[in-house]
Amino acid sequence: MTAVIVAGAVAGTGILVLILTLVPPRTLPASTLAQLDLQRSQQRARATAEQLDPRARVGLRRDLGMRLVRPLNSLGVELGPVRSDLAILGRTLENHVATSVLVATAGFLAPLVLAAVLALLTGTLSIPLPAALSVAAAAAGLVVPTLVAHAHAEGRRRDFRHVVGSFLDLVAMSLAGGRGVPEALQSAAALSDGWAMVRIRNALQSARLHGQTPWSALGELGDELRIDELRDMASALALVAEDGAKVRESLSARANSMRRRELAEAEGKAGERSQSMLVAQLLLCVGFLVFLIYPAIVKVLGTD
């Protein structure tokens, strides 16, 4: 009976593959365009990452990552948040996926190897506990690199928001000098060589080469990096691109609003750290009091 079931499953799989080969499923234009847009954004992010880190262009890790990412793309798994975090960090998805898999593999093998060594030394072998530890270590190895990248990306986003506020002030000053919006954006982006300003400048140069408007390029960069301030600025420039005075007033107001919000966030973090320091001081005081009272308590109770 088992052989019949296995044979039927194999035959059914072969018939399904034959049907899919002879009569491929019809592709919808919308899905095809979406895949092309996704591939273009992936290629842009990969080019930026390889420009920042030339070592990402070659290597066994990159080849392994490409083999692992290709099935994910074919299945429609986009990994949008992870791609945004890696884009702002200047890393490729292939290297990140390969690193996660390698760390998970190392975490899976480490308990098993340790259990085998202990079995050789003691002569006893315990399978359930090492197996459970291997599964837990493999799961942690898959998740930990992504969590670390997300934490680093949030720090980079805070720095990028600070740069966007300065960029808005520079654009407003250029507009006050009589320049147009595209010229003001280009001149403001050329005043600094910081990593965030370089990303903005590269986006503007790419827009000029591809015939796009500068604000659409900034909006795409904001979508790619998931920075709301950059998308809001692009929306404001797109709405009032023909009226320089309103643009200048809007950008100045947005820059002031961003600075007030950054100041409020800094004050909130300072308050949280003050509270944590207060708790630490209270714990130190409690420990010191226990250290002082303990000899008296021991003497009263008559214990050694």
UniProtKB/TrEMBL annotation:
Please, which domain of life does this record's source organism belong to?
A: Bacteria
Q: What is this protein called?
A: Type II secretion system F family protein
Gene Ontology cellular-component terms for this entry are: plasma membrane
List, for all copies, the residue spans of the domain called Type II secretion system protein GspF: 167-294
The protein's location, in the record's own words, is: Cell membrane
Which Pfam families does this chain map to? T2SSF (PF00482)
> Which membrane topology describes this protein?
Multi-pass membrane protein
Q: Which InterPro entries match?
A: T2SS_GspF_dom
Q: What are the UniProt keywords, alphabetically?
A: Cell membrane, Membrane, Transmembrane, Transmembrane helix
PANTHER family per record: INTEGRAL MEMBRANE PROTEIN-RELATED, PILUS ASSEMBLY PROTEIN
State whether keyword Secreted applies. Answer: no
Looking at the UniProt entry, the stretches that span the membrane are: 6-23, 101-121, 127-148, 278-297
Classify the main location: membrane
Give the range the annotation lists for the signal sequence. none
Lineage start = Bacteria, Bacillati, Actinomycetota, Actinomycetes, Micrococcales
